[in-house]
Amino acid sequence: MTEYAATTSTLPAGKVRGTGVGILLFVVTFGIYGLYWYYVTHDEMKRQTGNGIGGGIALLIAFFVGFASPFLSSAEVGALYERGGRPKPVSALTGLWVVPGALLLVLPIVWFVKTNGALNEYWKAHGAV
CA-to-CA distance for 17 and 14, rounded, in angstroms? Predict the structure, then answer.
């Protein structure tokens, strides 16, 4: 993934979350961490840009229509890059990694690595440590 210079923003950057720790927490909590992850990441993206569905709506979607969440999350992360005039490292199509992955555990992990990694790179470029 290519690093890029951050745009000037007075809004706080989101938190960088370890991908490996996220996967471990998702497994140990039997998916409950996934609901938390959807909430906080969408909340941070909405606070940073003023765009997106926000944490509450993301949590409701994840809880009631969970299959849509990977598509929405990847699309919003990609939109963060696009609004900054940069190429999107992930898009809604990245969510397709999860579809056959319901049967194969490794494919949702690929989705999470790609999406969380892109989000972490975005936050780092905007001042998060």
Answer: 9
